[in-house]
Design goal:
Keywords: Cell membrane, Membrane, Phosphotransferase system, Sugar transport, Transmembrane, Transmembrane helix, Transport. By secondary structure, the protein is mainly α. The chain has nine helices and no strands. The mean pLDDT is 78.
Length: 248
C-alpha cells in the first residue's frame, strides 16, 4: 500500500504540472486523474467510470473572481481510491468526492495565500538584479509547494485511511447507501445543467435540440455520435469560414 499511496500522490502532482509547469493541457481533468488512479490501483474500468461521472459534475464549475469551485482534482483521486480500495459503488464514491473537493479548495486558498508571499521575495531579488533567483521563485518554488500540498493529503488519506475507509463503508446502513446512490446520480445531472445554464442561448439552443434528437432517435453508440459531431463541426466551420471570406 505504501507504493500505491506514493504513486497516487504523484498522480496529484501531475495535476499541478498541468496548471503550473506546462500550461493548461487539461491532463488535470477528473477523467484523466481518475483513470490514472484506477491504473495505479489495478482497476482502470472503475477509474474511467468515476472520472467520466466526475467530469460531468465539474463541467459547470467556474472560477469567478476570488471564489473558486471545489477542487475536483483532489476529489477525483481520493474518491477513486476510496471506491476501489473499499469496494464502494460509483454513486457512493461520487458523494464522497464533493466534500473532499470542498475541503481541497479550502486548502488551495490557504496555499495561494502563502504562495503570494513568494512574490515579495522575488521582488527583492529583482531589486538586487538577481534575476535567476526571481525566475526560480516564480517557476519552481510555487510548483514545489503546490506539489507538496497535493501529494501529502492524498498520500496520508490512502496510506493511513484504507482500513478506516473499509470499516466506515461496512458500517453505513443500506438506507443511507441507497440515498447516496440517488444523490450520486443527481450530481452528474446537476453539473451538466450548470454547464447548460452558462452556454444555452437562442443561438445555441437549436444545436442542443438537434443533438438531443440525434442521440434519442438515431440509435448510434457513443463512438458513432462522437464521429458524427466531429464531422458536423468540421463542415460548419468550413461553411462559416467560406462566408467570412466571401464578405471580406
Amino acid at each position: 500500500m505504501l507504493l500505491k499511496a506514493i504513486l497516487l500522490g504523484l498522480v496529484g502532482v501531475v495535476a499541478v504540472i498541468d496548471s503550473r509547469l506546462i500550461g493548461r493541457q487539461n491532463i488535470g481533468r477528473p477523467l484523466i486523474l481518475s483513470t490514472l488512479a484506477g491504473l495505479v490501483l489495478g482497476d482502470v474500468k472503475m477509474g474511467v467510470m468515476l472520472g467520466a461521472s466526475l467530469e460531468l459534475i465539474s463541467m459547470g464549475f467556474v472560477s469567478i473572481g476570488a471564489a473558486g469551485p471545489p477542487n475536483m482534482q483532489l476529489g477525483s483521486i481520493i474518491a477513486t481510491a476510496f471506491a476501489i480500495i473499499s469496494g464502494a459503488s460509483t454513486e457512493t464514491a461520487l458523494t464522497i468526492a464533493i466534500p473532499v473537493a470542498i475541503v481541497g479548495e479550502f486548502m488551495s486558498i490557504i496555499m495561494r495565500m502563502i504562495i503570494a508571499q513568494f512574490s515579495h521575495i522575488a521582488d527583492k531579488a529583482i531589486e538586487h538584479e538577481n534575476y535567476r533567483r526571481a525566475k526560480n521563485i516564480h517557476i519552481y518554488w510555487s510548483f514545489i509547494f503546490n506539489a507538496f500540498v497535493y501529494f501529502v493529503p492524498i498520500f496520508l488519506t490512502v496510506y493511513f485511511g484504507t482500513d478506516l475507509v473499509k470499516d466506515m463503508v461496512n458500517m453505513i446502513p443500506e438506507v443511507i447507501t441507497n440515498g447516496l446512490t440517488v444523490a450520486g446520480n443527481l450530481l452528474s445531472a446537476l453539473g451538466f445543467a450548470m454547464l447548460l445554464s452558462t452556454m444555452l442561448s437562442k443561438k445555441m439552443f437549436p444545436y442542443f435540440l438537434f443533438g438531443f434528437l440525434v442521440v434519442a432517435y438515431s440509435g448510434l453508440d457513443l463512438i458513432g455520435l462522437t464521429l458524427f459531431a466531429v464531422i458536423l463541426a468540421y463542415i460548419m466551420d468550413k461553411v462559416s469560414f467560406s462566408k467570412k471570406e466571401a464578405t471580406s
